[in-house]
Every structure is written in structure tokens, then in C-alpha cells.
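Changelog note: in this version the structure field was regenerated for every chain. One regenerated record is shown below for reference.
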Amino acid sequence: MTDWTAELAAQRPRDDRIDFATPDQARLALDGTVITPLVHLCVLDIRGQDAETFLQGQTSAQVSLADGDFAPLTVFCTPKGRVLANAQLWRVADDHFRLLMHHSLVDSLATHLGKFAPFYKVTLEAGDDLALLGLIGREAAALAEVHFDIVAPAAWHQAGNDGIQVLGHPGPRPRLLVCLPRDQAVDTWRRLCDQATPVDNAIWRLHDIQAGLVWLNDGQSDAYLPQMINWEALGGISFKKGCYTGQEVVARAHFRGQVKKRMVRAQLDGALLPELGSAVEDGDGKRLGEVVSAELDAYHQAEILAVLSTREDTGPLHVAGQKLKLLKLPYSIERLDPETLAARD
């Protein structure tokens, strides 16, 4: 299928990156309104009369909460409780759900879930006919209302119809993710660019970092318990639902306080962007964790999310020769039940 972003004035250095020539992009996202193709993300569609029952047995979300308004975070685990993919779940119709995740995990998750699909009346299909756009900034909500006739939803909520859905995401500035048919993407992009400035999708990823949110990729799959990426603090785990794959391990880690690693937010003292998986080391060169997300901020310094050991008196830390300064996460490291989150709005 033709890549719709090929018609944009942009470069694609990698399949998960798109770059524009716009200067001072990170600052523009703070002061104005910007738009970016979210090429690092993709959708998996689950359709069929058994779709809700099927998902309920596989995912950490209480699927009934995905009611066309609330669009919860969720996670899929191995029997040992390790994360195969983390995602956002939303309902398109009674028998149609969508999962948003890193594009590199769509096929592997579909294969994993496909082992159980023959026992249910469901189909699994990658959303290759869809495009994802990100709007950031003070006018994002107004643009959604003008161009899509949709009142912008709050974070982790949705609005829209069968054709176009808009999802609210947290961050230092208002953020909306637009999911629409691929054949409408170029025309929609051009209309939105009259009032929003094109930027790299790295800017969306930077705001994810500042929101304390990571979307794991295929190189990070099967490596962490959900709590190691703070998923229960983001409302991504229901401890009130029944069994799902990996549930026993996830629950035991929570109730017994057995989480040995946690995700932290930090800034490095240089402009060198570390590779994902780069070691976080103490002054003696001992590895205490690794980088799971990294982007340059408005001051051209690297901001990162890293999963670190909780059992060390760390002292000064470094990544790729750069000093690490811990930053405050925008949420508390404590359990946030999605049932509570859904009831807030």
C-alpha cells in the first residue's frame, strides 16, 4: 500500500520517523499549535460478536469500560506477566474495538492473539487502511471541532464516529490523536496545515516522555512487568476484573510489592540522543537500568524515560557519558484504578 506521507514535504529516515524542515519545533509545540503524522504508531482492529469477551480474557483492561467515551490504556502479557504490547483501547461500535500501539508490535500481537481467536467469533486485522495524526497545542481542540465537527475529548477519552475518531492524550500541552481513513489523510493534512505547523513525530514522542508514557517496541517486548513502565499508575491495569493472561503474576507483584524496577523521567546534560536500550550507569560503571525512550527538548537536551532498579542507592548516574538529572513525573507512583479514571468525567 502506498505511504500517504510520501506526498508531504518531509523525510522518512526510518519507518518510525518522519522529519520536517520546520525550525524550533519543540518550542513551537509549547507556544503554538503543531501537527505531525504519527508514523511510529499503528492500530489493530478486533471485530466480531465475541470481540468484547475475547479481549476480556487477554487484556488488563476492564473491556466494558471502553464504552465509546472512555478509552483506557491496557496491556497484553505473557503467562509470566511480561508485557508483549502496551496499548490504548477504544470502541468503534458494539462489535468493533481498536488497539493503538507501536507499529512494530501490531503483527506480533495479532499472531499471539490469533492463537485464541478460533475459539471466538472475531477477526483481527492491522489498520493499514488508517492514518494517525497528532495535534498539539492551544488550538488543537478548536481545530478538531472545526474540521471534524467533534468536541475534543479529555485525556484517555474518545469522540467521533465510525469514520473518524479523536482521542485525548495527556502532556504538557493539549494533545489530540486523530484516526481517519488513509484515503482522507492528505486532504485533511493540507487543511489542518493552514492553522497548524508541521513538525517531526519526535515532538509527539517528546510530549509522551514528558507525560511519563512509553509505547514499547518490538525490541522491548517480553522484557518488563507492566508496573515497571508505571502502567498501574497510569490507570492501565484493572485489579477488579477477572482473569486474563499473566494476571496472577501482575496482581502478585502489586499486592506483595515485588516490583524491582520502575520507570523514571530524566534529563541528560548534553545533546547526544542515546539509543534505546542504552545503559544507565552509576559512578562505578554498574548498570542499573536502561533507556526506553529518548528525544531532544526545546533546550536541545535529551529527555529520557528509563527503567531503573528500585533497590539501589544510586548516587550520580550517567547515560552514554552524559550526567543524568531525575525529573518529576506528572503522576504519583501509586495504583490508579481505570474504574475511577472512567468515572471522573
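Spot check on this record: The chain has a mean pLDDT of 95. Helices lie at 25-31, 51-56, 106-114, 140-148, 185-192, 201-210, 247-255, 338-343.
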